[in-house]
Amino acid sequence: MPEDTNNLARLRAVVDDYEKKMTDAANLVAHVRHEINNPLAALLGQAQLLLRQEDLSEKSRRRAETIEKQAKRIEEIVGQLREIQTPAAVMNKNDE
User: What would the DSSP string read from start to end of 34-87?
Assistant: First the structure.
């Protein structure tokens, strides 16, 4: 019986350590998402403002469209990071 108690205590310690690491990783992902989204919003906004200009040359319009398209692509990729931002332990506790 004492061996089972020791094994259970070790297992709990491993799980607690894993949950802490997952929480730390989630916090890092949240920080990275925030730091990418701020300048990305500025880039996307500026590209969209350029595209509203009627006197924009065709070459400049294509460049602004490329910037807008790629900024939206980055936005989508950063949005996918949200899926890994919430630690599994938190999701499992919410299911209970």
Answer: HHHHHHHHHHHHHHHHHHH-TT--HHHHHHHHHHHHHHHHHHHHHHHTHHHHS-
